[in-house]
Amino acid sequence: MAKLVVSKFGGTSMGDADCMLRSAEVSYRQGSSLVVVSATSGTTNDLIALGKTAETQSWPDAEKILTKIQERHLKIAGDLRLPADSVKLLETLFEEMSSLAKGIHLLKDCSVKALDTLVSLGERMSSLLFTQAMSQVLKKHNSEKTAELLDVRKVLRTDDSFGKAKPLTAEVAALAQKHLSFLREGQRVVCTQGYIGMTEEGNTTTLGRGGSDYSAAILAEGVSADVLEIWTDVAGIATTDPRLCPKAQPIREISFKEASELATFGAKILHPATLLPAIRKNIPVFVGSSFDAEARGTWVRKDVEDHPLIRAMALRKKQVLVTLSTPEMLYAHGFLFQIFKIFNDHKVSIDAITTSEISVSVTLDDSTLLNKKLIADLSQIADVQVEENLALISLIGNNINHTAGLGEKIFKAISDINVRMICLGASKHNFCFLVSDEQGPEAIRRLHSCFIEAGSEEMA
Ligand code: ASP
Ligand code: MG
């Protein structure tokens, strides 16, 4: 039986008609059966701006954004010679967009729920156009396959946390069985939307910004795919962000565990949740560039051939360190429980943590500070100190907590940079520490030179 390949293309791969045709060509060559697409580049931002403008500004201001979004899609539709019935569908989506914006404007209320339905139009428009591009490419190659559009909301069931909905895995699997069991026959190429889903009650949801990768992974899990491909505008995962360090190198292969740490600790290339479904079903993930499909890209899988001590490093900017102290913690228990309970009540995720007898320090994204109630609640049980403008550096690799001399090598490389906090020991795959935001890029460049450019073999 043919391999079942699920491919996802991001916004830049949907940028215009040429980008769509290039992406469709990649899907054809890879033999994809299910293609998941993002909104055309910039459209999700524009739709959010449309919602906010409709809520707070004059209607003509909102209409300007509406027109801009429509023109962008009409241009692609024209370039792809979209057939009349699809043009009708596109116009229906335009009408929905305009009615929703009008409703928001009249109510002066753009709730997260309303915004989810509004932004879902980005993916619904791009997937409609992409289906036409796919169709053209299949015809050009005299393929017997046909391209068809699927409304992913029939399959991607989520809870009702609007703006950041959680996919319901068991329901998705059952719905995939119902609507997509023909995929393995390899005769139809289904084109669908990333990022969006639907609740049991029929309300449209989104999985959070950048969520199309995650959608593709959830669908790949649901249809038990053999391969998940994430096509973007860079040729795979690099040893560090090339914008920070020009000597960053492409990674050929990386394990699920290392890649999960890398995605969580700042590498922007994959949505952090993407690997969870792939790990659950052991589906290898390929990350490549739709603009340069010949470039080798990166394979993320369970078992990899080499296990370097340091494979990659990431920088997560705009971190804050919150230190909670209380003398009452001396010889007491339950303090950590109380702290975590407060973070949990506010649904705030903690990244790194260290403790002493009477204090606990945790790192958080600086946007968390906007939650004044969180800080007030923490102040009820401890003295709270907040330090801002920090950056979290993570070194990702193997056997990190069992390698003598690693600490010396790291701190020698950055001996003149103050390290504010260190987290080591919890994972074999991660060593992370905080420095000032300003010194973060320099620290990465030095560590990259020391561990990646010079090679880490002698210590691995
Ligand atoms: N279009 C959505 C966004 O821009 C989802 C995605 O691109 O993955 O966030
Ligand atoms: Mg995107």
How do the helices and strands line up, and which of them pair or pack?
Elements: E1 5-9, H1 17-30, E2 32-37, H2 43-56, H3 59-79, H4 84-107, H5 112-140, E3 146-149, H6 169-180, E4 188-193, E5 196-198, E6 204-206, H7 212-222, E7 227-232, E8 253-255, H8 256-264, H9 275-281, E9 285-289, E10 298-301, E11 310-325, H10 335-345, E12 353-355, E13 359-365, H11 372-381, E14 383-397, H12 406-413, E15 421-423, E16 430-436, H13 440-453
Helix pairs in contact: 1-5, 2-3, 2-4, 2-5, 3-4, 4-5, 6-7, 7-9, 10-11
The structure holds aspartic acid and magnesium ion.
Describe this structure in words.
With 460 residues, the protein is α/β, with parallel strands linked by helices. The protein folds into two domains: 5-233, 3-Layer(aba) Sandwich (Carbamate kinase); 310-453, VC0802-like (2-Layer Sandwich). Helices cover 40% and strands 21% of the residues. The protein has 13 helices and 16 strands. The chain has an eight-stranded mixed β-sheet with strand order 3-4-2-1-7-9-10-8, with helices on both faces. The protein has a six-stranded antiparallel β-sheet with strand order 12-13-11-14-16-15. A two-stranded antiparallel sheet has the order 5-6. Strand 1, helix 1 and strand 2 (32-37) form a beta-alpha-beta unit. The protein is globular. The two termini are 41 Å apart. The structure holds aspartic acid (ASP) and magnesium ion (MG).
